[in-house]
Write a structure and sequence with these properties.
This protein is α/β, with parallel strands linked by helices. The chain has helices spanning 16-30, 37-55, 61-75, 82-95, 103-111, 124-134, 146-149, 156-165, 181-191, 220-225, and strands spanning 4-7, 115-120, 142-145, 174-178, 194-198, 213-215. The chain contains 10 helices and 6 strands; from the N terminus they run βαααααβαβααβαββα. Strands 3-2-1-4-5-6 form a 6-stranded parallel sheet, with helices on both faces.
Length: 226
Amino acid sequence: MYKILLFDADGTLLDFQKSEETALKKTFQRFNIPLTNVMRERYEHINSSLWKAYEEGKIDKKTVVYSRFVKLFKEFDIHEDGILFEDEYQRELGNGAYLLPFVHDILRQLSLSFDLYIVTNGVAETQYRRLKETGIDIYFKNIFISEKIGYQKPKKEFFDYCFEQIPHFELKDTLIIGDSLSSDIQGGINANIDTCWFNPNSLKNEQSLPITYIIHDLKELLDILL
């Protein structure tokens, strides 16, 4: 069976939706900008489009984070510094560290039988802080962040780097667990390792990707692996 488990962070272990919502509200309030539902929806579209372009290697991480609010403010004719806003948003995002249910208990049990690693495309400084503040950093042998590696999920080069750093690594011994079809599952397929799609909202596998396991609750991992 498996010996190595690669975990995505945001949306898999960390409650990124809650962190994002809290950080957005606080940052918009600090800049005295009303955050309407229309503006929020537009931000989500701009942000997801930029991250998709990043996953495809079309733009770098800096372009993602330092253009999303610039684009948003331009569309809504808001005369604020989008780059300064981003810096404040990142500080708030790092402060908002929330876990999905049962994560501590699940990781504690899995860490007794497997070597656990984080594989994430998130902003490095923010990820390190949130993993430490939630206390789950203690369960992981290493934390691999695309910003530090120079390649991002789902690129094979990202995983090649990770594999080189993992002692006694074997493809057959490895499983990736993540909520994103485009970065985690496609990345695992590109890297030729087994995949586990964490799909709490019962989304459709629209690309018909060959997925090894699909779970709707993280506790299902214990049934599969232990």
